[in-house]
Amino acid sequence: MIEEDIHMAMSEAIYEKTDDNEYIGKIPCCWGVIAFAPTLEKCKDELLSVLEDWILVGLRLGHPLPVVGGIDHNKELSLFKTCSYDKFIKRLRRLGFEGEYHGTKHDYMIFGHHRLCIGF
Predict the structure, then answer these.
(1) Rounded-to-integer distance, Cα 109 and Cα 96, Å
(2) Running along the chain, 120 residues long, what does each successive block of 10 average in pLDDT?
(3) Residue 72 belongs to a domain with what CATH number?
(4) Rounded to an integer, what distance in angstroms lies between the CA atom of residue 20 and that of residue 14?
(5) Rounded Cα gap, residues 77 and 72, in angstroms
(6) What share of the chain is helix, strand, coil (3-state, %, to 5)?
(7) 30 vs 47, 79, 114, 116, CA distance in Å?
(8) For tag attachment on the chain, is the N or C end more exposed, with fewer CB atoms within 10 Å?
(9) DSSP states of 82-110 as a string?
(10) How many beta carbons lie within 10 A of that of residue 9, not counting itself?
(11) What pTM does this model have?
(12) By three-state DSSP, how is residue 48 classified?
């Protein structure tokens, strides 16, 4: 579910080339999701990473997800209201995260090639 929404949101991304020959990428329906990079490809990669982090932090804080492509998951994701650490870990596992792994400073979970720090 989340992976499909991420791809749908990325399809709505807007990229602009600046006067400094850098690229800016943003997703209008995801306020604050913006990336800067020297090439378009790097900008797309950075924007994807920013979007994934933005969604995860929003879920942890109980923020509603934006409606992307006319699809609103907020009712079914109401289980992500502020919750205990253990419940949060279980919910992330149901979404496809692996772990909980123990790092040198923080615990983390993995989704695809992204690492989410979950140390509080």
Answers:
(1) 10
(2) 78 94 92 93 95 82 73 61 76 84 81 75
(3) 3.30.160.250
(4) 18
(5) 10
(6) 40, 25, 40
(7) 11, 21, 19, 19
(8) C
(9) S--HHHHHHHHHHTT-EEEEE-SS-EEEE
(10) 24
(11) 0.61
(12) helix
- Which helix (H) or strand (E) segment holds residue 40: the answer is helix 40-61
Specify whether 4 is located in the same domain as 57: yes
Are 66 and 81 in contact, with CB atoms under 8 Å apart? no
Structural domain span for residue 62: 1-81
Residue with tokens 């989410």: 116
Going by the DSSP 8-state scheme, the letter that residue 30 receives in this structure is S
Residues 107 and 57 in one domain: no
Do 93 and 73 fall into the same domain? no
Structure tokens at 51: 């979007």
